[in-house]
Specification:
This protein is α+β, with helices and mostly antiparallel strands. The chain has three helices and three strands. The chain has a three-stranded antiparallel β-sheet, with helices on one face. α2 runs antiparallel to α3.
Length: 88
């Protein structure tokens, strides 16, 4: 896909994390295991987290890791939004 678009590619892989290719590096970025409750919103959160981190100047691999962490938080709760998460 990168060869066709010349743009970074990210493919989510569920519990395995995600695969990414930025033209220089391609790898699977693992995610810490979580107890999955609901997958609704995980992909949207991953995409949004990736874009937000990149917009703030994070290196691509750091942005991918950030996106994985946010998506993991979403699947570990009943609702598909982090807006409803209360901090202790």
């Amino acid at each position: 896909m990168f060869e066709l678009t010349h743009q970074p590619v990210v493919v989510t892989l569920g519990a395995r994390g995600c695969y990414y290719n930025d033209g220089q590096t391609s790898a699977i970025m693992p995610v810490d295991p979580v107890h999955v409750v609901n997958t609704i919103g995980a992909g949207d959160t991953h995409c949004g987290g990736l874009l937000a981190a990149l917009n703030q100047g994070a290196p691509f691999t750091e942005a991918v890791q950030h996106a994985n962490q946010l998506a993991a938080m979403v699947v570990a709760q009943e609702k598909g939004s982090l807006l409803d998460v209360t901090k202790p």
